[in-house]
Every structure is written in C-alpha cells, then in structure tokens.
Amino acid sequence: MTEPISAASWSYADAYVAEDDVLRHARERATEVGVVPIGPGGGAALQFLAAVLEARAVVEVGTGTGVSGLWLLRGMRSDGVLTTVDIETEHQRLARETFTEAGIANQRARTIAGAALDVLPRLTDGHYDVVFLDGEKTEYSAYLREALRLLRPGGVVAIDNVLWHDRVADASVRDEETLAIRDLLREVEEHEGLVPLLLPVGDGLLMAKKES
C-alpha cells in the first residue's frame, strides 16, 4: 500500500501552479464577503481541463468573486464564453472586477443572478464542454442531472468540495450535506454513461466525462 502523502508534499503540489496578483486580489475579496473559493490546485485542474478540451462554452454554478471563473477562462479558447450563476449579485459584481483586472473581455463572461436550479433549466441542451459545480451541497445531485443534460458528448462535469473537510471519508459523520455528497459520489460512480475521477486537491474535486 502506498504511503499517505505528507502535508508538506500536499501543500507543494497544491501550490505548484502559482497564482498571480489578480487571483490573490480575488481571494482577498472572497475573504471580505465570506466566500471560500476553490484552492490553487483545484483551480489549476480546472484550467488544465478547459485547455485540454479546448472549451468554448462553460457553465459555472457558484460565481463567488471570480477565482474559479478566472482559472476556467484562462484555460478556455480565446473566443470561449463562461456562463456563471450565483444567487448573490454582489459576488458577481466582485467577480466582474476580477475578470476586468485580468483583461478578460466583457463578452467572454456572462453572469446570471439567480438560484442554480431556476437558471440551469433555461440553458441549452448539449451545448457545453464543461460544467463546474460549487453551490449548495444538498442540491448537488439535482445539479448533476442538469449538468448531464447541458454537456455535449465528451464534455466533463467537475464538482468541488466532495471530500467536504474530511467528513465524507468519516463514516460516523451523518449531517445532511455530508450525506448528500456521499450520495452524489455513489451516483457518479455507478452511472454507466460517466467516466469518473476523484482528485484529492483542495477539498476534493470530482470529475466525470460524459460518454454519450
């Protein structure tokens, strides 16, 4: 059995792709408004995913202050458009500041204010290369159903916080959010049309490719 990775190696790997001043400023804004964005390792994974897929259309649930959105935009094609959904309009205003500071053209980031389960059904079937989910944990399974409708064949859904602060792996923890994430993980693993991968970066990043 492989030895567990040390905390030092974990931190080294998570910070391997360095963040610039724009992302650091976005994290500062997140702290000010009480938002916890994806970590650097998870962000780098999103950028890599968007680059490998040459993503032109991406949906994000949970805009925050633009940290994950900027990672995604930097991996997407130069003509790619990010559609990002958040119930908090102030968070989206701060995210637009982040995108502007990074030199992202206005037309490349479409912000939609509203609850994800109200907004996602209005988006186009089979149109998107990536769907990134970082919203209400108890709604993750419902988000997944919408994501699978939105993705093109070969597209990828990515879901943050699936280790949920070490609670998911601890069978004694039975709160509503932890149980919802365990159900999601089981659903993805058992889905015949998905190829899953669980990355132990940040708070856990689940990815699954839609086969058809």
Task: Write up this protein.
This protein is α/β, with parallel strands linked by helices and 212 residues long. It has one domain (7-210): Rossmann fold (3-Layer(aba) Sandwich). 41% of the residues lie in helices and 21% in strands. The chain has helices spanning 7-14, 21-33, 40-52, 67-75, 89-101, 116-119, 140-150, 176-190, and strands at 57-61, 81-86, 109-113, 128-133, 151-160, 194-199, 205-210. It has a 7-stranded mixed sheet with strand order 3-2-1-4-5-7-6, with helices on both faces. The longest helix is centred in the last third of the chain and has 15 residues, at 176-190. The chain is globular, with a radius of gyration of 16 Å. It starts with 6 loop residues before the first helix and ends with a strand. The mean pLDDT is 96. Pfam families: Methyltransf_3. This is Methyltransferase domain-containing protein. Keywords: Methyltransferase, S-adenosyl-L-methionine, Transferase.
What does the secondary structure layout of this molecule look like, with pairings?
Blueprint: H1 7-14, H2 21-33, H3 40-52, E1 57-61, H4 67-75, E2 81-86, H5 89-101, E3 109-113, H6 116-119, E4 128-133, H7 140-150, E5 151-160, H8 176-190, E6 194-199, E7 205-210
Parallel strand pairs: 1-2, 1-4, 2-3, 4-5
Antiparallel strand pairs: 5-7, 6-7
Q: Rough shape?
A: globular
Count of helical regions:
8
Report the uncertain regions. none
Q: Say which CATH homologous superfamily is assigned.
A: Vaccinia Virus protein VP39
